[in-house]
């Protein structure tokens, strides 16, 4: 099952939610996330998610140069497009995944496969020419994301799940620039990828 949520600011989302498996325990070992997506590679992001580039993306900044990433940077703009939360449909699987690392590894791999498939449908709106003022978009096939896995729920029950946080940016090879991510096609297909 894939659920979607929008993050408008997210200034504490990395430290207070993504890096914490047990949301209420102080001093717990941090969860390490990884960069995902072809867009992340284009920005030079690979391996473990660290605070500086994550926060730069949150503020619509290039994680290396600190320049604006996309042209449109309004005060109320969505900083991150969304989190995709991946939850096994059967609670028994979530409970067994807590005990058996093989299930956790298989679950993580399935989430990565689903995200790779979803990324094919990442898009950007076309705001020029005849398409100006319309909802027309074209596929870009890339996003910039951070992926985290947890094994407990907020109620501290065993619950294997993953969070993919996508920046509101995609590289448009046609225009040779970063534009806001248009998620319509990905959202339309998320139920297919989440089964």
Would you write up a description of this structure?
- There is one protein chain.
- By secondary structure, the chain is of the alpha+beta class.
- The chain is built from 6 helices and 9 strands.
- The protein has helices at 13-18, 38-42, 51-58, 91-99, 101-119, 184-193; strands spanning 2-7, 34-36, 80-86, 123-125, 137-139, 145-152, 158-167, 170-172, 177-179.
- It is globular, with a radius of gyration of 17 Å.
- The N and C termini lie close together (6 Å).
Helix content: 25-40%
**H/E series:** EHEHHEHHEEEEEEH
Rg, alpha carbons: 17 Å
Low-pLDDT segments, ≥5 res: none
Shape: globular
What is the average of the pLDDT values?
79
* Biggest sheet strand line-up: 1-3-7-6-2
Beta-strand percentage range:
15-25%
Based on secondary structure, the structural category is alpha+beta
Gap between N and C termini: 6 Å
Count all strands and give the number.
Answer: 9
Q: Could you name the key traits of this structure?
A:
two-stranded antiparallel ribbon, alpha+beta, 195 residues, 9 strands
Write the layout of secondary structure elements.
Blueprint (H helix, E strand, L loop, with lengths): L1 E6 L5 H6 L15 E3 L1 H5 L8 H8 L21 E7 L4 H9 L1 H19 L3 E3 L11 E3 L5 E8 L5 E10 L2 E3 L4 E3 L4 H10 L2
Antiparallel strand pairs: 1-3, 2-6, 3-7, 4-5, 6-7, 8-9
Helix pairs in contact: 4-5, 5-6
Q: TL;DR?
A:
The protein has 195 residues and is of the alpha+beta class.
